[in-house]
Design a protein that fits this description.
This protein is about 40% helix and about 15% strand. By secondary structure, the chain is of the alpha/beta class. The chain has one domain. Helix 3 runs parallel beside helix 4. The longest helix has 17 residues. The chain is globular and about 40 Å long.
C-alpha cells in the first residue's frame, strides 16, 4: 500500500437479487459504486455467486447463503439497499444483528434512512 492511500473498510452490500434479476443486478452495481465513492471496499456476493450457482436450485441457494454469511463476517459493516427487504436480505440483517455488526440502511436512491 502506498503511503498516500488511506484505509478503506470492507462493507457487505445487501440488496435484492431475485425477481427482476436484470434491474436488481444493475442496482447492485450502482450500490457498490456508491460504497466505493464513500471510501469503502464493497463486497456484493449476489453479483458473483450467480455466475456459477443457480438461485433457482435449492441446494445452490443454500450454499450461496452459507457463503454469504461467512463473507459477511469478514466485513466491517452491512449496508442494506433498496425500498424492500427480501428473504435473503432479512437473513443477512439477522446475522449481522446477532454479531453486533454495524448496519446502515439506504433507500433505492442511496439516501440513508
Amino acid at each position: 500500500m502506498k503511503n498516500n492511500e488511506k484505509y478503506r473498510p470492507l462493507v457487505y452490500v445487501s440488496s435484492a437479487y431475485a425477481g427482476d434479476v436484470t434491474a436488481n443486478t444493475f442496482n447492485a452495481r450502482r450500490y457498490c459504486r456508491f460504497a466505493l465513492e464513500q471510501g469503502q471496499i464493497p463486497l456484493a456476493p449476489h453479483l458473483m455467486f450467480p455466475q456459477f450457482l443457480s438461485d433457482n436450485d435449492p441446494e445452490d441457494r443454500e450454499l450461496a447463503m452459507f457463503m454469504d454469511i461467512i463473507l459477511l463476517g469478514k466485513c466491517d459493516e452491512l449496508w442494506v439497499f433498496g425500498d424492500s427487504i427480501s428473504e435473503g436480505m432479512a437473513a443477512e440483517i439477522e446475522v449481522a444483528k446477532r454479531r453486533r455488526q454495524k448496519i446502515r440502511f439506504f433507500d433505492s436512491e442511496m439516501r440513508e434512512v
